[in-house]
Every structure is written in C-alpha cells, then in structure tokens.
C-alpha cells in the first residue's frame, strides 16, 4: 500500500513539473508587438478651452450669493482629515471631498483623491467608486502650524496655493486653473480659432507636469512629462491618423528622475504607420 502512495505522489509531482514547463514555454504578451494603443489611455484630441476665464467670472458671482455650509463651486461636500506622525512631528491634512463621480482630466498629471481604506490622500490611479475626489479647501498642518493651503476642484489644484514655513511666514504662492499652473505656456496654430499646437506646463519658472504637442487636425502628436525643468520617463510620438486611432510612432526613454547623472536618452522602440514594430532596443 505504501508503494502505491509513493508511486502516486511521484506521478503527481512529475505532472506538476511538466505543467510548469509548458506554462514557461508559452510566449508572454509583448506590449510592443503592436503600436496601436487604446485611445482611452490618453487624450486623443486637444482641450477645447484652456484657462477659461468664464468659469472664474461664474465663481465670483457665486461668492456674492449667500455661502452654504460645505458647498464649494456649487457642489455639496463633506469634511475629512488624515493624521500621521513622522519623526515626532504630528502631521494633519484637513480637506473637503465630494462623492460625485467625474472622470479625471487626462491632461492633468496629479489628481488628488481620498482613499478611505488606508485613510490617505493619493495622486495616482483614481477610479470612480474607489475613493473620493478632493473638492474645496485644503490645509496641511505640522505641529499646529499651517504649512500649505489651497483649493481643489474635482481633485485638481485650483486658484491660489500658498506655502508657509514653520513660523507661518509665507514662502511661496502659486496659481492654478483646474490643475494647470497659471504660468503654463500655450502655443497656437491659429490665434483667432485658438487651435492649440503645444501645451508646456510651467510651475515656479520651470517645466513641471504633462507636456502635449498636437497635429493641426487636433490629434495628439507627442506626450511626455517634465520634472523640475527636465524631461523624465517615456516620451511618446504618435502617427497622424486623422483621429481614426492612436498608433505609436516612436518612444524615447529619458531619465526616470530629474538630475540623474550619466544618463543618455535613447530610442526604446519604433513602429510603422500600421502599428507594426520595426525597431526595439534590446535590454
């Protein structure tokens, strides 16, 4: 009887090894096999309006009306806070948030939302129903001193943001419009129609945030990211398909973090107009 069980276990182990070898021999999915990308992963056309002054005029009108408790920009909100201790310092974040669902603007890099599971504020991977977008006033307090204050609009920095030192002395001030730093530069193909050619995000005098370049037919041509005035991460160029589909043309790899020494940008991959891979740098 024992010999039977030993033989059975041996056959079972042998079958598992054989199955594992088959699994390893299966070709893994190649993200570069096709240059065609899901258009939902990136904005396919330029924003119709950027830094729209009409919304600011509406906000001024709203100010004149009688203020309602926890209502900001016409939206009813709830109050929340986070608390943590780092090196003996008590850090609080006081904020308002909305339970209204809204898809984040794909042009904005940082969308702030409240993760109720671990009670923290995050800027990446927001999914409707997973958390709540910050909306309304925000304060960051360290040892009872306000070190940062500002306003959010559906998860994006909005209006005036101020930074203070530990003695509550103003150190810096910046202005935003729904996530876009007001210093950002916009170039147009046509000034009369406001047909956008290029959006360069600028904050504190340096390029900071998501960069976009467009074709004249309004399709996205180039996307990338700046940090502290330097290109970082993967920059992608797209073929002009007259907005029928998004097909990658070339990807250039830059340093992952600004001011990385001895890093040379290189072409990571290239595709033809049909999305067929024609070049890829070996790792």
UniProtKB/TrEMBL annotation:
It comes from the Bacteria. Keywords: Signal. It comes from Algoriphagus aquimarinus. The lineage of its organism: Bacteria, Pseudomonadati, Bacteroidota, Cytophagia, Cytophagales. Residues 1-20 form the signal peptide. This is Antitoxin component YwqK of the YwqJK toxin-antitoxin module. The keyword Signal applies.
């Amino acid at each position: 009887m024992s010999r039977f069980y030993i033989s059975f276990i041996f056959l079972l182990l042998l079958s598992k090894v054989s199955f594992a070898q088959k699994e390893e021999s299966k070709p893994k999915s190649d993200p570069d096999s096709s240059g065609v990308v899901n258009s939902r992963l990136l904005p396919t056309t330029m924003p119709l309006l950027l830094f729209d002054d009409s919304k600011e005029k509406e906000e001024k009108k709203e100010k004149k009306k009688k203020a309602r408790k926890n209502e900001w920009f016409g939206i009813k909100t709830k109050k929340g806070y986070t608390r943590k201790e780092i090196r003996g310092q008590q850090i609080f974040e006081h904020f308002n948030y909305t339970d209204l669902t809204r898809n984040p603007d794909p042009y904005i890099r940082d969308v702030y939302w409240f993760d109720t599971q671990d009670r923290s504020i995050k800027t990446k991977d927001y999914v409707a129903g997973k958390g709540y977008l910050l909306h309304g006033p925000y304060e960051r307090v360290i040892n009872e001193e306000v070190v940062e204050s500002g306003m959010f609009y559906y998860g994006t920095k909005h209006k005036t943001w101020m930074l203070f030192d530990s003695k509550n002395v103003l150190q810096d001030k910046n202005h935003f419009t729904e996530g876009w730093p007001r210093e950002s530069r916009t170039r147009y193909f046509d000034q009369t129609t406001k047909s956008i050619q290029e959006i360069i995000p600028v904050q504190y005098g340096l390029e900071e945030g998501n960069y976009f370049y467009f074709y004249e037919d309004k399709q996205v041509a180039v996307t990338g990211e700046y940090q502290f005035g330097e290109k970082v991460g993967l920059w992608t160029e797209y073929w002009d398909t007259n907005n029928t589909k998004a097909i990658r043309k070339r990807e250039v790899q830059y340093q992952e973090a600004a001011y990385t020494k001895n890093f040379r940008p290189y072409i990571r991959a290239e595709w033809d107009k049909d999305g067929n891979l024609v070049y890829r740098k070996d790792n």
